[in-house]
Structure prediction request, 508 residues.
Amino acid sequence: MRLGLVLGDQLSFDLASLAALDPAHDAILMAEVAQEARYVPHHPQKIVLIFSAMRHFALALRARGWQVHYVAFDAADNSGTIVGELQRWRQSLGATQIHVTECGEWRLEQALRDAQLPLVWHRDTRFLCSREAFARWAQGRSGLRMEHFYRGMRKRCGLLLEPDGSPAGGAWNFDGDNRKPLPRGLRGPFPAHFEQDAITSAVVALVRQHFSDHYGAVDGFDYPVTHDQAQQLWRHFLDYGLAAFGDYQDAMAEGEPYLFHARISAALNIGLLDVRRVCEDVDTAWREGRVPLNAAEGFIRQLIGWREYVRGIYWLRMPAYAELNHLHNTRPLPDFYWTGRTRMRCMAQVIEQTLKLGYAHHIQRLMVTGNFALLAGIAPTAICQWYLSVYLDAFDWVELPNTLGMVMHADGGYLGSKPYCASGRYIQRMSDHCKACSYKVEQATEADACPFNALYWHFLIRHRAQLAHNPRLALVYRNLDGMAPARREAVWRRGQALLARLDAGDCL
Ligand code: FAD
Ligand code: DLZ
Ligand code: SF4
Prediction:
């Protein structure tokens, strides 16, 4: 007989390794193992999500006639690793072949390839662009710009196109219409809610028992764990959120973790939703006049553009990519990333929300916690480990390029053409945090001045040699050079003082 491996982020009925096997003769192995649950200190709710969704998927496979060997986390003979479980089950079942689908993470794929196992590999066809197709697209190009990749994907997938193949509305990109600050008092739709069933409750108890040393709340888990629930979450967004997605994509508001974001990333990444169907639903919603084009285009760009593009970069450049540190940053991650205990209101709000829900939307990740890490010169490996740990949707293939490349500019601009550095003014424009902050966003050098301001100029001054030639930063360097020398000296000193306080363990 043959054995098929289904990992915790491969919970799709049309997974390639399942398609290659026969339920009448072959068997499936699924295993909850310590190595996967502990290689970073995952948020407890992320472990609840993976284990509960795995258990539900195993039952659904059995209902479809599959023989599933399921190893629970606390099973007495659990070896603690995926490779160990494959070796054990291969022997006891006498399996001649083990069918596996490409892993999401280089780390695990390498461990499998290094093991003495009769593996038969399958492409992960759940992505629209294979690793090989991305490598072909990248070959011979001097710069790998997302926008170029995205246009090719729109044509290939036939999404938001006019009958003659030109882009709907006459443009590939409607960013000019998007990214508005949130009007005062506007709230996002009520969030979809998911009751915990007996399976999830049992997993919550298990996680509480074994992972109390991980940061983040286990209580309040409220996320889909089955395909049906994921579909409900998706329909909820289509009905109530998508129409305003483009307009308020970059807005942040106190007490509004989701605003007009879909909250589907974790469900997509573990296989409970299918990216093709999601994009087709958005295309249909636009064609039927239910959502404006700027919303539909903005949303589809995130999926067939950014999501596929970062995966392509990951597999093109790993394992060396994980080691890059273009700006030579070495500062350890401040403790307040794990506790939210800081007077910086924006940081405290995003971190507290993250610890409570395992979720923050893109601008919170990029322009608040990410921006601070960039300005403060945090070591890329430390901040990457944080992002990989704290979000329910975090897997190395998507977290690493976003953090190391987009946020930290540690790849020297391979992924993003300029660092997304910003002062407190950006956060003030896009959120309501500053009004409630004990720091003053309009000040840079005084004792209570917003730390983002001095750190922003300090970052630009200390990295002048690496950044000043970048045409997209020409204007900010002109502003810096136009600053009165005494003021430049004062922001530098304030920046030095803030960094010294971080080094002394002060939570700012
Ligand atoms: P929406 O805003 O509603 O967007 C819809 C979908 O588009 C998302 O579900 C996601 O699948 C996709 N998407 C949007 N932006 C990106 C992007 N930059 N890269 C890849 N896919 C994107 N996303 C992850 O799925 N896992 C991660 O580990 C992850 N780490 C990140 C780390 C940093 C530092 C940053 C800046 C971004 C990261 N992202 C990650 C991308 C993005 O922040 C999340 O996908 C998004 O916030 C998920 O929430 P949502 O489903 O409500 O997204
Ligand atoms: C994230 C995760 C966790 C917490 N636990 C498991 C597990 O016990 N068993 C499993 O098969 N997968 C788990 N996962 C997801 C894997 O870490 C993920 O499949 C790989 O990192 C992607 O290559
Ligand atoms: Fe954040 Fe500065 Fe605004 Fe405070 S003043 S919320 S630290 S941007």
In short: The longest strand covers residues 27-31. Residues 1 and 94 are 7 Å apart (CA to CA). The mean pLDDT is 96.
